[in-house]
Amino acid sequence: MTLHAITVLGHDRPGIIAETTRRLAELGLNLEDSTMTLLRGHFAMTLICAGTASDAEIRDALVPLTADGTLTVTVREVPEEHVDATDATPWVLTVHGGDRPGIVSSVVNEVAAVGGNITDLTTRLAGELYLLVAEIDLPSGVDVAGVEAAIRSAAANVGVVATMHPAETDEL
Amino acid sequence: MSSWTEDELGVPGRVLPVVRAPDAVLSTAGAEVDPCAAETVQLAADLVATMRVSPGCVGLAAPQVGVGVRVFCVDVAEHPKSRTHHGTFVLCNAEVVEASRNEKAREGCMSVPDLTGDVKRATRVLVRGALPGTGETVTIATDAFEARALQHEIDHCAGLLFVDRAAGAHAIYARKTYL
């Protein structure tokens, strides 16, 4: 049993997911984690699948998807990753303001500087408005107020505002 | 209500194993119960006992211990997000009769231990149900965290998990920290 990372990118149309998953199912592959969204109208999907097919067999099976030249497919075997439980604290970071180059890099640089890890990220450009929402894990013991101040400062330097709040889970 | 304790049930509770998704009992609507039946009273005591020994647990529904009926317990008295609360209680055949002021919050559940998810729920509710043992019908008006807990448990009794109410395709997360 091997794991394969598959990406499908390109022009959106109805039926891409249906066709992709049908062809993967025919190879006996099990879809594990996946995510799909539209990025400025472009179809963007990443799948992690498990099965006995090789990269080449998966590529061959998905070739028909690319026939009209509007979609690209990549397939690559990946190792099993073990995500250990962590004592890091989860936060949601929101940044928004007028669009300009360098907003994301300025802000996330402050997260990386303290060993913080981004576990989910969405950015959107809507007219002049640029928006970033990220889930970040900050290592336990880190000065959260200090990190937030550094992020706010970095954001201000590129003319946007940043806010951070705990990604609390209500245990029920 | 606030003065109710599990002692009123008159039977000792047993700690039961908590079942996890994808166990079918969690996605099957629970049956109505006779709140005065001995088996309902025993189940009520068992739910409270199991809740008490489960770290961070503020509520437990019968399907979570493998019993497909409409009974649950809650106790949010010690939770920092609680405003109004009614201490420990068990309700049978409960239903939400009024709900207003929705808010989104991230939920976790012992029966779906590896995921959390954003769920929109009413922050003010009126819930009606029957007390185990006496069968007395009670109506509970509550808010904030107790309101969320009640809706989460009533959903369990209807065969619904928080993932069934996810706020969107990107509103489910891998759990990072465990209690």
TrEMBL record, chain A:
Domain ACT: 5-78, 92-166
PROSITE patterns on file: ACT (PS51671)
Database matches in InterPro entries: ACT-like_dom_sf, ACT_dom, UPF0237/GcvR_regulator
Protein origin, superkingdom: Bacteria
PANTHER family for this protein: UPF0237 PROTEIN MJ1558 (PTHR34875:SF6)
Name by which UniProt lists this protein: Glycine cleavage system transcriptional repressor
UniProtKB/TrEMBL annotation, chain B:
Biological processes, Gene Ontology terms: translation
Keywords annotated in UniProt: Hydrolase, Iron, Metal-binding, Protein biosynthesis
Pfam families in UniProt: Pep_deformylase
Active site (record annotation): E153
Cofactor(s) needed for function: Fe(2+)
Annotated residues for binding of Fe cation: C109, H152, H156
GO MF entries: metal ion binding; peptide deformylase activity
Entry note: cofactor: Binds 1 Fe(2+) ion.
Reactions catalysed, as given in the entry: N-terminal N-formyl-L-methionyl-[peptide] + H2O = N-terminal L-methionyl-[peptide] + formate
UniProt-listed Enzyme Commission number(s): 3.5.1.88
Cited function: Removes the formyl group from the N-terminal Met of newly synthesized proteins. Requires at least a dipeptide for an efficient rate of reaction. N-terminal L-methionine is a prerequisite for activity but the enzyme has broad specificity at other positions.
Similarity-based family: Belongs to the polypeptide deformylase family.
Protein name, as recorded: Peptide deformylase
Source organism phylogeny: Bacteria, Bacillati, Actinomycetota, Actinomycetes, Propionibacteriales
Primary gene name: def
